[in-house]
Amino acid sequence: MSKVLTAVIPAGGHGTRFLPASKSIPKEMFPIGEKPVIYHVVEEVVKAGITNIIFVVAHHKHSIEDFFSPNEEFEDYLKLQGKKDKTKMLVDISNMAEFTFVYSKPPYGNGAPIAAVEHLIKDEPFVLVWGDEFVINKGVPRVRQCIDAFETYGKSVVSAFEIKEAERRQLYGMAKLKSISKTDDTVQEILDIVEKPKPGKEPSVYATHGAYVLTPKIFEALKHTKPDKKGELWLTDMLDYVQKKEGLIAKIIKDADYLDCGNPLFYLLSQIDYAIKKSDYSEEVFDYVKKLGACKID
User: Fold this and answer.
1) Least confident of 99-103, 197-201, 262-266
2) Which of 34, 63, 159, 251 is the least buried, fewest Cβ under 10 Å from its Cβ?
């Protein structure tokens, strides 16, 4: 079985929900703490053992490539200022992995990045993670857990999270699951994925979303997947094909915080979540939020 060494990170959307901020700054470059969202994503996959990262970006998102590329002029300036720690920080960013940038083109949709990277990946398994969401946990990184499940079962794997708030389940693809292990209830077979189910129609409380380990079967699925009426390709349709042909595994991620930064509300909530749990200012932020909780909103 081939090792999983490559990750694909799509960041091709226009971020229209974040306008006007996203007119010049990609939403993936919005900060969570002192780091852009997409930097947190890269940290997660690198911790999982990934050495090659392919970004699928829109033509106007040059700032993502700039961020992960060396900036010798800025590094020299920091050296002259005696800021060795800051210099090392910048050098380390460009050395985190081998970075490749591919520009997105029609057809669009969240399945389009599969078509964009096929010529680079060919017949190897790979990780797919979105550029506007990430997970923080104390134990084994989410992506590493998915890779471990792939290495055990030899099938494509999708991370799954319990969505406790019923009203949020209609925002995700909710999975119908079947137990396949007597000793590990976090690994289950996916029988079906229901996209954005109506309230009360969810097949489970688990959303299959966020991180994927995909076999080359996904490229076969691409050839059998047609764009929808809007001309967009959808990953769910491809996963449905993979599930029918070789099976699909859900890896349920527990004891972790899933930070979805893909829309303005969730981005703000993720800011607060991260600030309280992971930042250097956790106590100060927590105290401030408590004070706000005691105030009345006009």
Assistant:
1) 197-201
2) 34
Can you give the length of the chain in residues?
298
Give the residues across from 25 on adjacent strands. none
Neighbouring C-alpha atoms within 13 Å toward the C-beta of 145: 25
CA–CA distance, 158 with 169 (Å, rounded to integer): 17
81 pLDDT band, cuts 50/70/90, is very high
Residue pair 271/169 in contact (Cβ under 8 Å)? The answer is no
Which pair of tokens denotes residue 129?
Answer: 């993670």
16-43: pLDDT as tens digits: 999 999 999 999 999 999 999 999 999 9
The residues, ordered by sequence, that sit 6+ positions from 163 with a Cβ below 8 Å of its Cβ are 169, 172, 174, 205, 206, 207
With both helix axes pointing from N to C terminus, report the angle between 264-277 and 282-293 in degrees, rounded to the nearest 10: 120
Rounded Cα distance between 194 and 202, Å, is: 7
Has this prediction a pTM greater than 0.90?
yes
User: What's the rounded Cα separation, in Å, for the pair 211 and 160?
Assistant: 8
Q: Is 201 helix (H, G, I), strand (E, B) or coil?
A: coil
**Coil vs helix vs strand at 198:** coil
Question: 297 in helix, strand or coil?
Answer: coil
* pLDDT higher than 90, residue 6: yes
More confident residue, 218 or 171: 218
Compute the distance between CA of residue 111 and CA of residue 239 in angstroms, rounded to an integer: 10
Q: Please, what are the domains in the chain?
A: 6-293 (3.90.550.10)
Instruction: Measure the CA–CA gap between 36 and 270, rounded to whole angstroms.
Output: 12
3 CB burial (10 A radius; 0-12, 13-18, 19+)? exposed
